């Protein structure tokens, strides 16, 4: 019984230790402002954008995904691209010079429009 | 006998007592005033009933100095009589409590003997005038004492809502030569003025009526007077209201209002589209009406104006439809047209309730309005606005049936609104980088029955160069693609016979070459106009998931 309890305690401790490792040693190639803790997501380097901004798209699997830009008020889709990207972090860009100055939502979906993440941004 | 005599004496005494109250002070206008600024002339007059000889007449009255401005006075005393006028601004008479305010000699005694300092109180709105006429001989019946001239002031912001009781006589001191007080009444409680026109109309509101509700601030208004001169201009706020400040407009004056859309608006090339083209073509053909083409496909009279983009005032014909087609194709027709487009607007506006109404076979845009002080609703107008070429009212106000709808008999279709209604359909617009490093923008559609479609695509011309547009719309469609301006390309198709339809699949592909190294295309290509049209003119709004 003691051995079982000891093993269980070790397992719990190891689980906590693993998380600490992830927190303390993030991917050195990804700037801190673009790091995504979760397994899946989308993140812009800055919320207020004037010309272009770096973007991290973190994916669960290799494959095709959609990056959509929707209007910040009526949710109307105004721009959409299809990317073929790899599992994990993918550093890309969002170009806003030809977009009207307004508020927007950038959205990551799979090929079949299932939402995987989103973030609001402003073109200034 | 003694009793009879006593009764007779009592009756005579009673009659004599009541007989002493029969004189009065009469005051009334000499002229009729109707406008702010008019001069009101008031006369103050002795009215004699009982034959008492009046040698001293003294009248005290007050006027509302917020509504009347003293100009002058003129004595009407007879030759040889003395006349005096006194005045005090900022005072108002306090009548004796529990007595008739019309009893002038009682109020006089109140002032003279009883009230002491309580007879008048300060009041900025009132001024007190007192005239005295004294004559050696008895004044005749109906003898005028004085005439006063006042200028009628605007009651706007005066704190008064009307011109009631602008002048009130406070008391009168009528005496015989022996000093006997003559009992006196006044002829009225106070002098009212009615029907006064003009004056500050106060704040005035214009509600803009347009379908272009996201861009109210791009519109301006102009108010003109009867001579056509500009009275004021302004812009509408984000709610579509234009507020004209107090003091600009006057009551009972007729103005005209017009609205204009700025020619600097960035979306003017989205106003006239393939949907408008389809409506104009159908009208030009006289679709379904037989060889005579005698009926109309339009629901509203105003569409005859909006569709007449050539401006020949000859209704809608093939000249108009080809002009719009040439415009969408980016072809120079060498004609001057009135199509709303980048840098060019042709505005129509009018009071919404009659906007586009047919009067004596002419489509009208009535613009006149008249603020009236007593009618609060006259201080607001709804101003409808439309644009030439916008036959389907995408950016223009749709008239009401009552004002501008064509009769069922006149129209080819029995389904009212069919030509200006729309429906939704899903399509997929997407960009990606192909194996050659080119950016491919694909328009994928499974929509059936479209005789026309149009897409205004916006791209970043500093990063992308448009190389090619690949059409796969079917063999019978007239396709077009043209760069409206740097970074905006218009792509679409139209079948002039309204019979063939855009092929399903990927009818359009735009190929761009990147001008710099890019890894992806997010934000580089966006879409504005994205619509289709069916043969019956129904607009299809494309929905992208």
Question: How would you summarize what this structure contains?
Answer:
The complex is a heterodimer of chains A (124) and B (545). Chain A is an alpha+beta fold and 124 residues long.
Overview of the molecule:
The complex is a heterodimer of chains A (124) and B (545). Chain A has 124 residues and is α+β, with helices and mostly antiparallel strands. Chain A has one domain: Macroglobulin (MG2) domain (Immunoglobulin-like, Sandwich), CATH 2.60.40.1930. Helices cover 19% and strands 46% of the residues of chain A. Chain A has 1 helix and 8 strands. A 5-stranded mixed beta sheet of chain A has the order 2-8-7-4-5, with no helix packed on it. In chain A, strands 1-3-6 form a 3-stranded antiparallel beta sheet, with no helix packed on it. Chain A starts with a helix and ends with a strand. Chain B has 6 helices and 30 strands. The longest helix of chain B has 18 residues, at 2-19. Chain B has 3 domains: 19-193, Immunoglobulin-like (Sandwich); 204-404, no CATH class; 422-544, Immunoglobulin-like. In chain B, the strands form 6 sheets. In chain B, strands 25-28-23-22-30-29-24-27-26 form a 9-stranded mixed beta sheet. In chain B, strands 3, 5, 6, 8, 9 and 11 form a 6-stranded antiparallel beta sheet that branches. Chain B has a 5-stranded mixed beta sheet with strand order 4-7-2-1-10, with no helix packed on it. Chain B has 545 residues and is mainly beta. Chain B is rod-shaped, with a radius of gyration of 40 Å. In chain B, 11% of the residues lie in helices and 41% in strands. Chain A binds chain B through residues 52, 55, 66-67, 69, 77-84, 91-100, 106, 113, and chain B through 266, 429-432, 458-463, 487, 518-527, 544-545.
């Amino acid at each position: 019984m003691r051995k079982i309890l000891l093993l269980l305690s070790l397992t719990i401790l190891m689980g906590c230790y693993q998380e600490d490792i992830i927190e303390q040693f993030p991917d050195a190639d990804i700037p801190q402002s673009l790091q995504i803790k979760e397994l899946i997501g989308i993140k812009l380097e800055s919320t207020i954008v004037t010309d272009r901004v770096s973007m991290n798209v973190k994916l669960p699997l290799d494959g095709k995904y959609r990056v959509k830009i929707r209007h910040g008020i009526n949710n109307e889709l105004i721009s959409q691209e299809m990317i073929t990207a790899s599992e994990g972090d993918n550093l890309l860009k969002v170009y806003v010079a030809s977009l009207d100055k307004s508020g927007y939502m950038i959205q990551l979906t799979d090929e079949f429009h299932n939402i995987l993440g989103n973030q609001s941004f402003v073109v200034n | 006998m003694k009793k009879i005599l006593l009764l007779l004496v009592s009756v005579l005494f009673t009659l004599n007592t009541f007989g002493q109250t029969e004189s009065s002070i009469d005051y009334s206008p000499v002229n009729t005033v109707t406008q702010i600024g008019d001069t009101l002339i008031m006369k103050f007059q002795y009215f004699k009933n009982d034959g008492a000889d009046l040698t001293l007449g003294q009248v005290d009255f007050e006027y509302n100095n917020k509504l009347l401005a003293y100009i002058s006075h003129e004595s009407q005393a007879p030759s040889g009589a003395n006349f005096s006028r006194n005045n005090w601004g900022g005072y108002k008479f306090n009548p004796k409590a529990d007595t008739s305010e019309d009893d002038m000699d009682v109020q006089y005694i109140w002032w003279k003997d009883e009230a002491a300092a309580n007879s008048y109180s300060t009041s900025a709105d009132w001024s007190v005038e007192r005239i005295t006429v004294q004559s050696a001989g008895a004044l005749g019946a109906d003898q005028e004492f004085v005439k006063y001239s006042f200028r009628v002031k605007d009651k706007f912001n005066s704190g008064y809502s009307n011109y009631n009781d602008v002048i009130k006589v406070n008391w009168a001191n009528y005496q015989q030569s022996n000093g006997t007080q003559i009992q006196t009444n006044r002829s009225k409680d106070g002098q009212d003025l009615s029907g006064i026109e003009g004056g500050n109309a106060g704040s005035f509101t214009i509600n803009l009526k347009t379908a272009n509700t996201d861009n109210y601030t791009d519109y301006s208004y102009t108010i003109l007077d009867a001579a056509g001169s500009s009275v004021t201009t302004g812009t509408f706020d984000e709610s579509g209201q234009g507020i004209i400040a107090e003091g600009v407009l006057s009551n009972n004056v007729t103005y005209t209002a017009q609205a204009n859309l700025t020619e600097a608006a960035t979306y003017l090339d989205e106003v006239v589209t393939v949907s408008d083209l389809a409506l104009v073509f159908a009208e030009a053909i006289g679709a379904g009406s037989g060889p005579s083409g005698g009926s109309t496909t339009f629901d509203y009279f105003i569409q005859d104006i909006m569709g007449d983009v050539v401006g020949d005032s000859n209704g809608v014909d093939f000249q108009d439809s080809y002009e719009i087609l040439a415009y969408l194709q980016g072809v120079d027709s060498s004609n001057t047209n009135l199509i709303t487009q980048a840098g060019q607007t042709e505005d129509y506006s009018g009071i919404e309730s009659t906007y586009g109404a047919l009067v004596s076979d002419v489509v009208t845009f009535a613009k006149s309005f008249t603020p009236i002080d007593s009618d609060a609703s006259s201080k607001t107008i709804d101003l409808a606005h439309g644009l030439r070429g916008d036959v389907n009212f995408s950016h223009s106000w749709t008239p009401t049936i009552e004002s501008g709808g064509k009769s069922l008999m006149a129209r080819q279709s029995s389904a009212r609104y069919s030509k200006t209604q729309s429906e939704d359909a899903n399509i997929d617009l997407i960009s990606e980088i192909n194996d050659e490093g080119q950016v491919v923008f694909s328009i994928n559609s499974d929509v059936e029955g479209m005789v026309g479609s149009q897409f205004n695509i916006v791209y970043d011309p500093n990063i992308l160069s448009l190389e090619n547009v690949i059409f796969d719309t079917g063999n019978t469609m007239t396709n077009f693609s043209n760069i409206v301006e740097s970074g905006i390309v218009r792509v679409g198709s139209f079948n002039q016979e309204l019979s063939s339809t855009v092929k399903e699949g990927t009818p359009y592909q735009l190929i761009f070459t990147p001008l710099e190294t890019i890894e992806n295309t997010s934000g580089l290509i966006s879409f504005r106009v994205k619509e289709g049209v069916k043969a019956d003119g129904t607009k299809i709004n494309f929905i992208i998931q």
